[in-house]
Every structure is written in structure tokens, then in C-alpha cells.
């Protein structure tokens, strides 16, 4: 039942989730070296930082006439929005000049320039990551002509971290989806957290879980079965992923008002937790390795786990090895596996 619930939730949220693909490219500091955004109608979020004032970062993208140009500029919740107020400059064919471009801003030889300054900062909670940020400025317009468009982000007087959301079509490639947990670590670092703080809930959950099982389950102390310990550890990494997500949710909503997206976060945390419980229920049974169905169930869990962002790929690998080792132990009962 737990496994079926996990499968259903994974199917539901991978098909209906609304989220941006996070990227962290090297900055383009001139028009010639502008970071190229492929498929600009797809939802992306670029995480970067301005080293100092009057130092624009440039992006470029191709648009067809009539396509929607959707841009949102954000800064970390840890940044003071009264001191760091970045500006967007949209440049391209068919645009009419709006605002005054500073002298240090490079502009193309064609088209117009739209200057969009930071407005009233809006603290927001984003449930997919989960994280919090200030939404500072927004552009939502239609490409008047087909061609190359440039976007610059700059701050007149100081440096700081910013995020730029582009596009509106929510889609992920297979590798983008599976690697989201690692991209999320970059996002949390962008928001002022250090790596040790980010991974500590995950590591602590695995260590505490193993210690708890050894204390409460005396039969495990003498257990020498490699498949069992691999599966137990893998199951705990699944649980740890759910705990880490809930931990980041608490961190985020401690700085901004909670919204309905906490439900999304709770669901993304629940799926790894369910997969972890399903794995542990099998791995903690006596002589599960001798059962014909148990290894297959573990393989199924391990196959689902990367799509549920469970175990940071380490957990699924351990569970797969556990299942394969159990098959070998049944074929060669005299081995030490």
C-alpha cells in the first residue's frame, strides 16, 4: 500500500508540478560574451551575482514575433532590498525606448532599450525548491519582431546576488529532473546558507536512524547480512531527503509569510518518506533476502527514488546493490554475501 501511494504521488507531481529549471552559468560581462539562453519560453531561473556596482551581466536569447517575453528579477531573502536594488535592461528589435540607460551599459546597434528598475520588494515563498526570496521587478511583453534580444542586469552602486526567472513553459528533461536535489543545494547557497548547513539534516537523519535501530532492534546488532545493511542505509537516505526538504521549508517560512505552496513542499517531502518506510519495512524483516518478491520490490523502489528526489542518488544505488546481492546470495547460499 505504501509503495502504491508513492507511485501515485510521483506520477501526480511529476506531471503537474509548476517550477523553473535552475541554472548557474558563468556571467557574461559584455554583449559579445552574453550568456545564451536556449529555448527562452521554457521556465529557467539563472542564479548569479554582481561583484560590484556598474557591472552589468548580459544574457541573449532568440525570440519569434508574437512570442511572450516573461522575466522576473529576484534577490535572496538574506539580502537587504533597500540597499541592493538591481535593474533590468531589455534590448532588442521592435522595442521602444523606456527609461534612461546608464553610460556603462552596452547596447546593440539595433532596436530599443527598456529600463525596468526594482520596485517594492515582495517577499515570497517558493514551494518547489523550497526557498524564499524578494521579487524585485517584472517584465511581461510580446516580441514585436523576430530576432536576437539582450537582457542586462546591473546595480548602479553595489554588488549582490540575484536570480533571473525567464520563460513560462514548465518542462524538464530527464537529467534536469533527476539532478534537481543538487541544483537546489546551489540555490540554498545563493540564499546565504553554507553547504554544511544544507546537508546537515540529511546526514544527521541517517546517523540518528542507524543509531536508533541498533539500540531498539537488538536482533540487528549481530546482523551481518550485507544486503540488509545496504537496504537499511538506503532506506534511511530516502527518509533523510524528506526530512531535509521539511527542514528547508521551515527555514524559508521563518523569513516570509507561508502560502499555499507549503502543501507542494509537504507533498515533495512525503514521497521520499513513503519510499523510505517501504524500503525499511522490507529490509528490517528477518530473512527477507530469501523471499522471491522482496528484492523485486526493492528494485522498484530504487527505480522510483531518483524521480522523487530521494536519497541523492546514493540511496537508490545502495538499494539496487542490496537487491542484486540478495539474488546472488540465493543462488550461492554458501557465499559470504
Task: Explain what you see.
- By secondary structure, this protein is an alpha+beta fold.
- It folds into two domains: 2-14 and 178-331, no CATH class; 20-171, Jelly Rolls (Sandwich), CATH 2.60.120.
- 39% of the residues lie in helices and 21% in strands.
- It has eight helices and eleven strands.
Order of H and E elements: HEEEEEEEEEEEHHHHHHH
Query: What would you call the shape?
Result: elongated
Q: List the uncertain runs.
A: 3-18
- According to DSSP, the number of beta strands is 11
How far apart are the first and last residues' alpha carbons, in Å? Answer: 30 Å
Q: Trace the largest sheet across and list its strands.
A: 1-3-11-5-9-8
Structural Rg: 24 Å
What is the percent of helical residues? 25-40%
Sheet-strand content, in percent, reads 15-25%
The major beta sheet can be summarized as: 6 strands, mixed
Count of discrete domains: 2
- Distinct helical segment count: 8
Mean pLDDT: 90
> What structural category arises from helix and sheet content?
alpha+beta
